[in-house]
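dumping these here so i dont lose them again. two proteins, back to back, each one seq then structure tokens. dont judge the mess
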Amino acid sequence: MTGYTNKSADTGLRPRCYAAIIIALVLFGLLFGRLTPYFWTQLALSAAALGVVAVLLERKPMLTAFRDEGGPGIVRTILIGLTSAAALYVVFLIGNAASRALFSFGAPQIDAVYGLGVTTPRWVIAVLLILVVGPCEEIFWRGYVQRRLTAEFGLPGLVVSVLAYGAAHIVTLNFMLIMAALVCGTFWALQYYLFRSVRTNMISHAAWASAIFVFFPMR
């Protein structure tokens, strides 16, 4: 796709993207480095802050990306988003069973993820994931970081965006969570590369996250 193979004429935007990634790493480092009972609320605030950063750094391109110009129509957007969320859920269903069976640390680390913010009501978690976390993370990581890096470097930029997304979870020292982030990051990065639709990714992320953490948890 031409939007990914041509380098941006304004390379001065590159340092801003690097700074935004550093901000994301710091926010996630603070979030996972000092866990509290308000984890889900803090995650939503962090995601919202990153979404605001993305729009402030590149307001016009971000608004264009959000309008899905050149992307699939609304019906296809919803269908692709929900179908991809279901496909990713199946991938994790298989991965969950395999990890618990093959690795001694698999079950404890997976259960530790489900132990985050357990005092928060399930309906609140669902609302935060669907309306804030899913959409805002896609706006930042795919709509801004991936779009900017691929505009500058092509496909290697896509790889860097995925690694940055995974790196944001390294502070947890939870191998299963880090691998999960890399799988999700790769999946949504390829989806955005293929469809160039932030809205499709937002629906996919929100549907998958609410399913795996609230409606159909794997524990």
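---- next one ----
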Amino acid sequence: MRIEITDDAAVTARRAALHVAQSAQHAVAERGRFTVAFSGGSTPAGMFDELVDHDLPWPRVHVLQVDERAAPDGHGDRNLTLLRQRLLDRVPVPSDNVHPMAATDDDLERAARQYADTLRTTCGDPPVLDLVHLGLGTDGHTASLILGDPVLDVDDRDVAATGPYRGWRRLTLTLPVIDRARRILWLVAGAEKAPAVRRLVDADASIPAARVSPGRAILLVDTAAAATIGATRTAPDSLHAGDRQPPGDRP
């Protein structure tokens, strides 16, 4: 895992947007499209705002979700609500290229199967996303991979439905499809996240986040969240030097 420590959350957001924009340009040049899955939470709002000002090849961008709460459409707890308000409604991405999770389906297991089909249609079989953006909870969860939920151990499906967590059942990408991504971008800010960041960097398998493969991951973290891992900043290198071409990957 490559670690980049920035001065504050605003700088982290700008750096994250730059990574997304560069990944998009690279993917479109190499494969003709860019597939990205965004997580929810409040932290990515700044990244979305910054992305609006980047000249992405939007007609060739496909936007997917890492996870979603089974809340009504437009609800403030829905990840899609923030994603639409801060990004999708402000950029010229074609509506057919936006792939939301059907979290309002009465049958979440069916919705999970349908979203797995969407991944295959959009990202190949097996699906390989160009970039997966992840956040980090204070309890060490990422996506909606929650300690104690059977979904954490799913290894035969790319999408699964969780049990209740903080008031909602959820749909989430599972570890296999996250680990297949060409690039994983962690975005973490705030002093309250510092203990979880320490455990992530230490590969402490007792937290769900540490079970994500670190091989093609970048951790963007502000100084507050990085307080327990020191203040060393990694030197910039080629963003795509570690990108993997999975077996059978086609342009």
